[in-house]
Amino acid sequence: MFLYNKNIKFLLEASLMTQLMNLLYDYAMDTGFTAQLTTPKYRIINNRLDRLSDDLRCSLPPDAQDTLKQYHDALQEQRHLELEAMFLSAFSLCRELG
User: Fold this and answer.
1) CB-CB contact of 14 with 3 (8 Å)
2) Which of 2, 7, 1 is nearest to 76 (CA)?
3) Nearest to 8 by CA among 73, 94, 93, 89
4) How many whole angstroms separate alpha carbon 22 and alpha carbon 40?
5) What residues make up the domain containing 71?
């Protein structure tokens, strides 16, 4: 069974993220987490990544564009899985401390 998380736009295994965990994750993503992404350092690296991605896309031949898109999609999924793992770790730590 899989659950869909509205913020990260991919399927999460239910064994890791229960419906309650998905609700808590959504709340964290909608509130505190996104506030941390407004720092100048984050904006600078995000702009740099966008610029480099555009440069790479423009320099590739048309037949390589699909491979680049697949690569970006895989990276995005990896980032989301890492965020999920960090959330689960933080939640576990909070339970132990609480």
Assistant:
1) yes
2) 7
3) 73
4) 29
5) 2-97
Joined tokens for residue 97: 């401390």
* Exposure b/e, 42-76, CB count within 10 A at least 16 = b: eeeeeeeeeeeeeeeeeeeeeeeeeeeeeeeeeee
| pTM above threshold 0.70 | no
* Number of C-beta neighbours around residue 81 at 10 A: 14
Number of structural domains found in the chain: 1
pLDDT in tens, 12-65: 444 567 788 888 888 887 877 777 778 899 899 999 999 999 999 999 999 999
Q: How distant is the alpha carbon of residue 9 from its chain centre?
A: 9
